Amino acid sequence: MSRPNGSFRFRVELDGIEVAGFSEVSGLQAETEYEEYFEGGLNSHPHRFAKRTKYPPLVLKRGVTDAWELWEWYEDVINGKIVRKTGAIAMVDLAGNELRRWDFSGAYPVKWHGPDFNASQSAVAIETLELVHDGWKKGQKK
């Protein structure tokens, strides 16, 4: 019998390189649009036909460090240089063994949010990066 795993142990990789320190990832979703067709004489239900599947942006949050590579990637987009990357989000167990993996492709940043500063609090400074992508699929565990 399998049991649920905590959502607090995960890794994020971009182009095969583990990007350390993300505290939160959201947007791992997919939604398929559909069209309803009502057939004459069939009053119990409409026929539903699948159309396109949409994937919302991935939102990555991490504590601010002295590394600038995520900002520089976004800065390239600002300057008209779109560099698409492949990536993965991996759920791991307490020992660091990969349990599940979601691979995404064609990703590039479309939004960066720097830390909010407040001298009356001792919270960690957080930066947020939002990535659009071409979709995700079930990945092979490493």
UniProtKB/TrEMBL annotation:
InterPro entries: CHP02241, Phage_T4_Gp19. NCBIfam families: conserved hypothetical phage tail region protein. This is Phage tail protein. It comes from Tumebacillus lacus.
